Inverse folding.
């Protein structure tokens, strides 16, 4: 075996947290510092490698040859008799997501540095969660993808039920059941595709099957199989992206989870849903053409309804939870436009929402740790105490409203442009109507963001009301500054990500057109 | 029978011979040195004997045999039978490890002797290629297990378990015997599987299937009891709750596996010509079994009873693989059983520890386990998630193979006729996930008095748990070796 850096780097990114989880489990439980340092080291290694992958990705090759879009590939047999292999690699979309996971992973460790209750178990499960997420974003084998997908769901249960707050057991159970139902339905769909793919067209022996995504894309799936299984796979994974009416787990889960888990969860895990759902588009392009215009109707509800519900929430964290439902609706909407601009916007929205929501949740966590309440009407004047957190929250708020100069604007603008343009095969009459409806989501977003900002951060500050005031430490500040900086940098220079995203969406579009 | 044939036959059943001798040795020592025996001596002897038998089985598997049949075709030694033998022996070893700390059992040679004898019976069930052999093996196993279930005579629930197990078992094995004797009559007095199969084929070709349907139903009752399939499952919760925990663990994995060994060999070979008729029956049995098992398990408060219903549901999943005949289906069953042996024994081992520590078998009394004993709680986590079928544990691949086999099954018309069963299975595994997660919630989240008191367990116990958890993780990541072995065993029926 050739231990070329380009071949093992993705494996290292995924397995660094797994190794850390094992080490943490074997550490004596008194040695909490060692536990934290191990977790931080592992996520940092993953982040550094993710940046390295992002820099080293050969953009010129990928631009010329769609076959070269998946880079840093490694392939090893796993269960050869069933065509299951360990096949990893990233395209432009996966690349941006791996980078996002790296950033949010490190920040999650830093923000939960001082966790008191059984830190050893907390960090071990957190590492498994991060590893599962990395695994999904780099998998090119569908079995491997489902394996990592479920691996990232079950630690959520323990993390939320044990370290969470506010109806945590209910929320944890609801989240786990929803997500696993979705993933198993999708798995059944994948199995149906697996058995109906044309072995000869994929270059295999007759009767031989494979889970390899790159081969299955060439599998000429019969059109009736496509029509039956497109929605089960797309929506099955889409549950994790919060597609209406299967979004119900998400606000409860976000609210109940401890801060770091909310960050990873809303920031990264929901993107996992969208990322896995577009696999249905890759596998079943003809059905995608027919059925994505139906999916867009569902996600319109997400965008408007999510924002409307967020507006009337009394709990600070629920506002953010429902805003995620709304913003993730925009992501799926972007993919449903099925044209280059809209899909570019969707991927950038995945990044932008990831950073923004993680930032929101860290601010909420900082305040909740001190105030021990999240009722919006009980909080006021926190800008006096937390100027930095206020700035970070306002930047995040502006991103979510789509303020020009920030990353959210670039993303949302492209999604709406995509909606006006319509799918590649011609305009569908209701797409512009959807654009008009969805813009209301953005307007409602502005309403609730401004309301919270005004209520929570400005107004009377009464230091005597709070008995547990502690200054934020260096780690908290680092997290807030990093997130704010990323939102501004990508807003000013979207090209640093857009160039890469473009390389991922162009082949996806070609696949849809070819079908 | 010539001397050479006899020697050959003895070599074919050599693992059983070894076990039998060890069992006799244990019983004799118990008689001679009663009360003076070194604590745990019998347990270690049993583990040693089982390991020796395991080596013999391994040797037989690697080197193969020139001719699979022995004793005029009464037994058939092949990869299939030997893989089951490996499972029985591993289950025996692990169950003995769990029993090493149990008061009243660990110093009792009779207990270990009986466990060994029932394993011998199971070995013959896996080897059986003849209806008489099948029945003898089945009864040897069952009668010994009735005694073991009621082994703690001072305990009312244990005695009740023994009696109940015996009454149900005796009844269903009579029904089975009736079915076998009808078959014997219909097929013109044949006893070996291959010969009966030819006769059945002849009858089926002549459209005379009605008498065979009666046989099919009667035999399904007998086997259904062994594997605890609905509606022959009534004994399971009471026996699992009442029997000493190591025995419960042993019954729930080894006896169930033995049931599947005879089930598969009998249905695939003897009733092979009637496949179209029985696949539907088994599929319905599977759907009902897993649905009922899971729904009732949801309501259980006692951990051992919950595991009993969960094991009924697991039998349902395994039956999916039986219904999806062919290489994929049978291999999936074997893989599932291998994963299940490790997983369920771990679950019962944790039940034993928790019961010892708190004196209660209720799920809610496992609160604080993760604070008292993080390692044990982790073993529980692994077992529950593996039963639920979550990666990276053995149960994930097991469920995946089963569902894959169901979806990949095509009937003679070329239709994928069992997709509905896979969907029922999927829905069921979600119901099941709920009650497995509730156990984890109690162990990890709920607080209890005395949760800061560390829980001490013996080295042997820890070792056994470490082995099973490591095994589940390894099988959950590197599933290929066991799966290849299962495929080899399944090819016995297709090649």
């Amino acid at each position: 075996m050739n231990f070329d850096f380009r071949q093992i780097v993705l494996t290292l990114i995924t397995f660094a947290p797994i190794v850390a989880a094992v080490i943490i489990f074997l550490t004596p439980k008194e040695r909490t510092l060692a536990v934290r340092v191990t977790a931080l080291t592992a996520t940092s290694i993953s982040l550094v490698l993710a940046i390295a992958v992002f820099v080293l990705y050969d953009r010129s090759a990928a631009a010329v040859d769609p076959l070269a879009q998946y880079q840093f590939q490694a392939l090893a047999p796993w269960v050869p008799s069933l065509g299951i292999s360990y096949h990893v690699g990233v395209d432009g979309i996966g690349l941006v997501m791996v980078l996002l996971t790296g950033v949010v992973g490190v920040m999650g460790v830093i923000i939960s540095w001082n966790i008191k209750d059984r830190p050893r178990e907390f960090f071990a499960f957190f590492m498994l969660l991060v590893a599962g997420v990395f695994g999904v974003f780099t998998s090119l084998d569908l079995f491997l993808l489902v394996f990592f997908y479920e691996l990232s769901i079950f630690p959520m249960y323990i993390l939320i039920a044990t370290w969470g707050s506010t109806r945590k057991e209910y929320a944890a159970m609801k989240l786990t059941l929803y997500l696993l139902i979705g993933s198993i339905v999708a798995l059944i769909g994948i199995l149906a595709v697996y058995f109906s793919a044309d072995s000869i067209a994929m270059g295999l022996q007759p009767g031989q099957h494979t889970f390899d995504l790159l081969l299955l894309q060439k599998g000429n799936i019969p059109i009736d199989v496509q029509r039956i299984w497109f929605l089960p796979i797309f929506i099955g994974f889409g549950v994790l992206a919060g597609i209406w009416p299967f979004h119900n787990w998400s606000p409860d889960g976000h609210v109940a989870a401890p801060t770091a888990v909310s960050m990873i969860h809303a920031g990264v895990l929901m993107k996992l849903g969208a990322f896995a759902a577009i696999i249905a588009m890759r596998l079943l392009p003809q059905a995608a053409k027919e059925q994505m215009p139906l999916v867009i109707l569902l996600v319109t509800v997400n965008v408007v309804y999510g924002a409307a519900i967020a507006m009337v929430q009394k709990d600070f964290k629920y506002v953010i939870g429902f805003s995620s439902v709304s913003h993730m609706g925009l992501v799926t909407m972007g993919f449903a436009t099925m044209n280059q601009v809209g899909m570019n916007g969707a991927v950038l929205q995945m990044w932008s929402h990831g950073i923004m929501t993680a930032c929101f949740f860290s601010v909420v966590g900082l305040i909740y740790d001190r105030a021990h309440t999240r009722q919006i009407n009980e909080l006021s004047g926190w800008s006096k105490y937390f100027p930095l957190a206020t700035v970070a929250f306002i930047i995040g708020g502006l991103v979510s409203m789509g303020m020009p100069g920030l990353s959210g604007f670039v993303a949302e603008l492209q999604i709406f442009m995509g909606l006006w343009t319509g799918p590649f095969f011609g305009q569908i009459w209701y797409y512009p109507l959807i654009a008009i409806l969805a813009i209301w989501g953005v307007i409602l977003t502005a309403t609730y963001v401004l309301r919270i900002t005004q209520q929570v951060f400005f107004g009377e500050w009464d230091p005597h009301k709070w008995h547990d005031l502690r200054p934020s430490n260096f780690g908290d500040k680092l997290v807030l500054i990093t997130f704010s900086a990323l939102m501004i940098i990508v807003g000013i220079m979207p090209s640093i990500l857009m160039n890469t995203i473009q390389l991922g969406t162009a082949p996806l579009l070609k696949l849809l057109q070819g079908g | 029978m010539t001397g050479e044939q006899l020697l050959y036959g003895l070599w074919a059943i050599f693992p059983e011979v070894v076990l039998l001798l060890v069992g006799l040795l244990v019983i004799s020592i118990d008689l001679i040195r009663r009360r003076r025996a070194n604590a745990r001596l019998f347990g270690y002897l049993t583990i040693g004997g089982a390991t020796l038998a395991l080596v013999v089985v391994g040797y037989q598997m690697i080197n193969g045999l020139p001719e699979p049949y022995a004793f005029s075709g009464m037994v058939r030694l092949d990869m299939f039978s030997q893989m089951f033998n490996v499972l029985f022996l591993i289950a025996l070893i692990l169950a003995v490890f769990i029993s090493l700390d149990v008061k009243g059992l660990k110093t009792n040679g009779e207990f270990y002797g009986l466990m060994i004898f029932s394993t011998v019976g199971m070995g013959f069930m896996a080897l059986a290629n003849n209806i008489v052999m099948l029945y003898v093996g089945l009864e040897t196993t069952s009668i010994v297990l009735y005694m073991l279930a009621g082994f703690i005579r001072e305990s009312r629930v244990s005695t009740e378990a023994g009696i109940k197990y015996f009454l149900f078992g005796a009844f269903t094995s009579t029904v089975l015997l009736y079915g076998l004797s009808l078959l014997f009559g219909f097929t013109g007095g044949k006893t070996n599987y291959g010969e009966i199969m030819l006769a059945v084929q002849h009858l089926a070709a002549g459209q005379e299937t009605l008498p065979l349907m009666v046989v099919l139903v009667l035999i399904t009752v007998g086997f259904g009891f062994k594997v605890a399939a609905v509606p022959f499952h009534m004994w399971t919760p009471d026996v699992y709750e009442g029997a000493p925990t190591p025995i419960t663990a042993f019954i729930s994995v080894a006896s169930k596996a033995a049931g599947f060994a005879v089930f598969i060999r009998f249905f695939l070979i003897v009733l092979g010509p009637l496949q179209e008729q029985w696949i539907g029956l088994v599929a319905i049995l599977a759907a009902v079994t897993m649905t009922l098992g899971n729904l009732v398990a949801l309501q259980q408060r006692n951990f051992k009873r919950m595991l009993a219903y969960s094991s009924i549901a697991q039998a349902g999943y395994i039956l999916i693989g039986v219904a999806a005949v062919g290489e994929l289906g049978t291999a999936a069953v074997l893989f599932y059983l291998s994963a299940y042996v490790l997983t369920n024994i771990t679950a019962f081992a944790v039940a034993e520890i928790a019961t010892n520590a708190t004196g209660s078998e209720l799920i809610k009394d496992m609160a604080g386990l993760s604070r008292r004993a993080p390692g044990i709680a982790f073993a529980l986590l692994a077992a529950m998630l593996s039963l639920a079928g979550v990666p990276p544990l053995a149960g994930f691949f097991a469920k995946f193979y089963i569902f894959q086999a169901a979806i990949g099954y095509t009937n003679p018309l070329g239709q994928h006729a069992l997709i509905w069963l896979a969907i029922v299975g999927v829905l069921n595994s979600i119901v099941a996930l709920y009650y497995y997660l509730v156990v984890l919630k109690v162990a990890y989240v709920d607080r209890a008095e005395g949760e800061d008191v560390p829980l001490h367990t013996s080295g042997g116990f820890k070792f056994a748990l470490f082995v099973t958890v490591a095994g589940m993780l390894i099988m959950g990541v590197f599933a290929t070796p066991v799966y290849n072995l299962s495929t080899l065993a399944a090819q016995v029926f297709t090649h």
